[in-house]
Amino acid sequence: MRRDDDSPLSLPESGGGNVAGPQSGRGTSVLGIERGLVRRLLDTLGDPPFSVILWDGHPVEPVPSDPIARVHIRDRGAFYRLLRHPDLHFGDDYAAGRIEVEGDLAELLTVVDLTRQQRHGAGGGRPGLTSRLYRARRNTLAGSRENIHHHYDLGNEFYALWLDEDMLYTCAYFEDPQMGLEAAQRAKMDHVARKLRLEPGQTVVEAGCGWGSLARHLAREFGVTVKAFNISTEQIAYAREQVRAEGLEDRVQFIQDDYRNVTGTYDAFVSVGMLEHVGTDHYRELGGVIDRVLSEGGRALVHSIGRNRPIGPMNPWIERRIFPGAYPPALSETTEIFEPYNFSIQDVENLRLHYALTLEHWLQRYNAHEEEVRRRFGEKFVRAWRLYLSGSIAAFRSGSLQLFQLVFSRPTDNELPWTRHYLYPGAGG
Amino acid sequence: MRRDDDSPLSLPESGGGNVAGPQSGRGTSVLGIERGLVRRLLDTLGDPPFSVILWDGHPVEPVPSDPIARVHIRDRGAFYRLLRHPDLHFGDDYAAGRIEVEGDLAELLTVVDLTRQQRHGAGGGRPGLTSRLYRARRNTLAGSRENIHHHYDLGNEFYALWLDEDMLYTCAYFEDPQMGLEAAQRAKMDHVARKLRLEPGQTVVEAGCGWGSLARHLAREFGVTVKAFNISTEQIAYAREQVRAEGLEDRVQFIQDDYRNVTGTYDAFVSVGMLEHVGTDHYRELGGVIDRVLSEGGRALVHSIGRNRPIGPMNPWIERRIFPGAYPPALSETTEIFEPYNFSIQDVENLRLHYALTLEHWLQRYNAHEEEVRRRFGEKFVRAWRLYLSGSIAAFRSGSLQLFQLVFSRPTDNELPWTRHYLYPGAGG
């Protein structure tokens, strides 16, 4: 057995799970002590409705009746890594198959998230030493390129397997929870357009345009001209191809550059799902960009994952393995975008449950295409992304993460709609 | 002439406006220097469209063509006080009649506010030394009683002269800007009730209930039971009388006590127009009260005057003479209410222009009842309140002040409406 040298717990040299019999774990044997540790951990989690099965193939007792999932810890190394830093190592060992989950992974993670919130508040209370020392990768111009490349340049084909047909990789807006993902993504684009009060002939700048669907949708459906920025090579290539195919080149321009290099003046600024990658150190700079390019009567909308309060970095496994440089801000942290420029917040909407539902659609499609993902990226990748999607569902369901849409304008602009009725053209009488 | 000893400017012992001829102000005479000072001040304000007439009866030149107002400074003392601390002394000297305004006072103040914002950002830029040293009266339990008494116990008859028939002394909600004040105040109560998603039989606690109309409206129209807190003696007496007259005593209870003494558990917490009087030092305490009394699935709404960013205390004249202890927070300052308790912001709506319109209705009614106010309180009071209402119109029109409605709930509550359609039952198709 590999000695886990970093472990703060003293680990005997001898005794592996495979040599101990089923009963050996109940006494003072090494495995027995380890079972006791799991039991204590489960007790502090409030005796959650899942069972844990150690590497000897036996569950830690008592086993809950009707468990929602069974968590298999396949070897002792995974066990001690999990004790030391669960937020990082659960992910790595799940991806490597050293931890396996039978049952509903998203539901399991939701239960764990909820339990933590009940114990400590969102995100498990104040950030521990590890996360306080931990620093997200810096989003300098060069750093941003590297961070964005890591996630978004996995290949358009990969994302096409499980995103909607318009390739929107942000929270959809379900006017009704029963509507399909395609319709909900279109409804999101319409909702954003309405919030921006776009009129034909107006100009829009988009910071972080993904595969370009919002830019094309706004030009096609709302008659505006859009300049859209993105630093991802693969996304920009796809966006340009689509805009040519649709014959919208005269009204949509895709620019492969950082949002900080935006020039010109526009009637609307929009950014959907970019703020998570900006980093709080750069919010003031982002606000300065908006201040520089927004016309006097202009409207701005920022759509971003967020949190109820600042509690340090995101889940470290997600941040390291999936989304380098990502950070979901609390509303209080976003003020650096607005206050230095005297922007006036008009509207904040929290669409948290819409993101949980969006992710459920994505996970379902992802699972249906698992074989293709495996062929291209291998088993570890398949498992890592399954965990990432499931964990994200859990975070939005449990309230660890929020989805904020913020609308703001110049402080002296009095050309404001009287009410928000205009956002709900289909509301019944 | 009275020597203004506090003035940092050296003032000659001799030479009054009344002895100098109209031309004497143009040369190097004292009055000429004073005219030069006004001219420079007007220049820094961007040559605003109003004229200033000094105590000799002559305007400072050049006079703008088609001025929106003419400001008369009646004596030299008022002039130097205005130079020294305009935000405080304009009010005092206007109330005393030493400054007079011919024309639209609200429009004049709006122009000044807008000009300042264009120069420095909202509120005239960073707070000066005076306002940084200045501290709003403390809102301890005893301090709050004194501060609230100062404003709200002027007599119900006084407020009845110019408020709507339901005596709502907070921003109305104009579904249409043409609707009357009475209808707009009822629409506000309905809007608040919808945001709280009240259902018959539920319980509501109200912190700072004014004359009790919201509490009665919620009980009568939405079938809930309300416990409403207020520390103003006169308001509570009026509220109790009204609730008896309506026969709603079994469902509305008015308690003359501080919001910090609220006990029990409720389906909804509501506070309309109290936060301005709470003081940022006490926001965490307010959040603690809400956390203590809100049920698991409860909804909370705070409706308050606010600002785009924290720029020190409110206009000192308003704070000293009209509203002791008042402070309109920036959204970033309100986070102490939410973040320590992991509350989840669901909705923020800015109703700034609704408050400008509400105040226009109040001012119109106030002006129509000026004689009655004069009989009871005298000329100085009449002028002070005219200025207060006009200055408030200006602050909301110019964007110096905002009106925020914030809706929040427990972090793990997933019983949320899918969209905000339910807030707009009358929206067209």
UniProtKB/TrEMBL annotation, chains A, B:
Q: What is the main EC category here?
A: transferase
Q: One Pfam family of this protein, by short name?
A: CMAS
EC number per UniProt: 2.1.1.-
Claim: Lipid metabolism is one of the keywords in the record: yes
Q: What is this protein called?
A: Class I SAM-dependent methyltransferase
Spell out the molecular function terms from Gene Ontology. Answer: methyltransferase activity
- Which protein family is named in the record? Belongs to the CFA/CMAS family.
Q: Which SUPFAM superfamilies did the record assign?
A: S-adenosyl-L-methionine-dependent methyltransferases
User: Is Methyltransferase among this UniProt entry's keywords?
Assistant: yes
Q: Which UniProt keywords apply?
A: Lipid metabolism, Methyltransferase, S-adenosyl-L-methionine, Transferase
Where the record annotates domain DUF7884, the positions are 40-112
Source organism superkingdom: Bacteria
Q: Which GO terms describe its biological process?
A: methylation
Q: Where is this region: Disordered?
A: 1-27
Q: Which InterPro entries match?
A: CFA/CMAS (IPR050723), CMAS (IPR003333), DUF7884 (IPR057206), SAM-dependent_MTases_sf (IPR029063)
